[in-house]
Amino acid sequence: MRGARSTGATPSLAPRRPESPPGERLHVSAPTAAPDSPTDLHARSWKYVLRKTVREFGTDQCTDIAASLVYYGVLALFPGLIAVFSLLGVIGQSDAAAETVLGIIRDVAPGGSAEMLSDPIRQLAASPAAGFALVTGLVLAIWSASGYVRALGRGMNRIYEIDEGRPFLKLVPVQLLLTLITVVLVALAALLLIVSGPVAEAVGEALGLGTAVVTTWNIVKWPVLLGVVVLILAVLYYGSPNAKQPKFRWISVGALTAIVILALATAGFGFYVTTFSSYDRTYGSLAGVIVFLLWLWIANIAILFGAELDAELERGRQLQAGIPAERELQLPPRGTAKLEKAREREEKDVAEGRRIRLARGHDD
Hints:
- It is a multi-pass membrane protein.
- Helix content is 69%, strand content 0%.
- It is an all-alpha fold.
- The two termini are 42 Å apart.
- The protein is globular and about 75 Å long.
- It has helices at residues 43-59, 62-88, 94-108, 113-125, 131-159, 168-194, 198-206, 211-239, 253-275, 279-283, 287-320, 337-359.
- The protein has a domain at 61-308.
């Protein structure tokens, strides 16, 4: 296994050093085409992939990466809510939307998370409609979410066993584009959740829609929401790492697995919090905060496990096609310029250090 590069950064975010020099990854013509569908993998390949996924998830320190993603996710949470509430404030439904959001949090996030967030969310709902608040919320949400995308990219590079080689001027526009797409999709998912019940009826009246349309919407929105979440994961899984994947997969096994794990983990964690835990006695008024942060951590663990599974499925495809991917995935990097410059600087430092050593403390 490749160890983490010692850079002084958080160990979980330090990518593994590739065994091949940058831009010189081994590419071997496969005797057969790589399987495209997971159903094309043999039982032996599936067993290898699942075992490797669990092992690499621990080796890549994905739980630590998930903790850093929680930090950036919290930073982006409230600016995003400002934008959503400001938009709904145009039709005078920001207060109803706030109550809907709190109801969703009570149903999804375990413990006293809703009580902890109730005052901030109601204050956000009371902010001015549209205009400056909407623009400010969107700008802050995009800026905060870009930190999440950058951190996820570092984690994805570690999962795909590759260093970041794209230069700053090439990497930043890509990350901002990913961030913009993600923010729009997350806002859409939030609206799908919020526009239900009384809010949906008010929106339907404002748009001149009948009650039948609103009733249908309350049913149809759930599969639409699932599709939006799958699309968010597909975009992040494909665009964030430096590894150039064979193709964009609208629906991946990893994304579906992440959603299932999140649903099961949320139910299990909620049962634990309400039945066995003593967060209230231990943390007092901060119990809701702790529970909410733990739930976000679990959610990001699920996302990273799904990414790890997709990476190992790609390894399984390559191995079954005869490509030597036992030690590292054979995927071309999107960029190597940054790595090449880093190698040049390192070689200069090594040469200077050698001259100092040979001089034995004496100037030339």
